[in-house]
Amino acid sequence: xxxxxxxxxxxxxxxxxxxxxxxxxxxxxxxxxxxxxxxxxxxxxxxxxxxxxxxxxxxxxxxxxxxxxxxxxxxxxxxxxxxxxxxxxxxxxxxxxxxxxxxxxxxxxxxxxxxxxxxxxxxxxxxxxxxxxxxxxxxxxxxxxxxxxxxxxxxxxxxxxxxxxxxxxxxxxxxxxxxxxxxxxxxxxxxxxxxxxxxxxxxxxxxxxxxxxxxxxxxxxxxxxxxxxxxxxxxxxxxxxxxxxxxxxxxxxxxxxxxxxxxxxxxxxxxxxxxxxxxxxxxxxxxxxxxxxxxxxxxxxxxxxxxxxxxxxxxxxxxxxxxxxxxxxxxxxx
Length: 334
Known about the structure:
CATH superfamily of the largest domain: Zn peptidases
Strand content: 25-35%
CATH architecture of the largest domain: 3-Layer(aba) Sandwich
CATH topology of the largest domain: Aminopeptidase
Number of domains: 2
Order of helices and strands: HHEEEEEEEEHEEEHEHEEHEHEEH
Structural class: alpha+beta
Helix content: 10-25%
Distance between the termini: 36 Å
């Protein structure tokens, strides 16, 4: 999967600009699905399995990444900006960013006396231009930029920007590749604009009307020195979400995922996240309600330029999702 993951994470795809990522994913899964289309918002929706199946299972992994958007170009060619998605200002200091057209810049800051005074409005992007006129030849107000960081293969672990949530997209793509005549109707949604409000998953879930919804997304870890307490660690398996700020996992869904992990010998850990949310937060509120949960990929350094995952966790997430595709979903009602 490493080559696929590299292709996914290194592509430009800030929220609202997911087209290039969508093209790469479509090329990866085209020969492994029965149907594939792009909806009005830009979600890529792929289907496997019989149309008349007893149940429809929807997976959602979001294609978009956090980034920056240009709000002003000053007379000296410096770009003022705002954030797209959750970014803390101190994470940006001296980082390189890249625009869709390939233009690279670095993030600078006005002089500040104390770290608490570091605000995004005091920061700027320097693309090496000496005037507003020159800068405007390369970048316009409204252009978006992402972190400029390639994937680093560390052996068992991978480090890159945009693991959130391209690693979830890679898990979903791999699941679609590995399915063998699934008994349920499987709908894989590669969603847009999750980082700015779970938007793509909301409309996709309304269209799909699934019997079960599962997000495939990253979650934080508590295994670094003096980290925030979180009972999730890199290398300990797929994280089965119990709760986050967007979702309390349906009890039947939680039970089914835990049982499947035990039955198939899949390494897993329980996840209670005291912040953030996933596409499942939008899916479970669709139409008259959808039993929903999340299979999470443990990830260090979330919403930063370098996010780290463990390959064994990624494999465990694929295995658990494949097992769910073949499960009797009526077990949820027990």
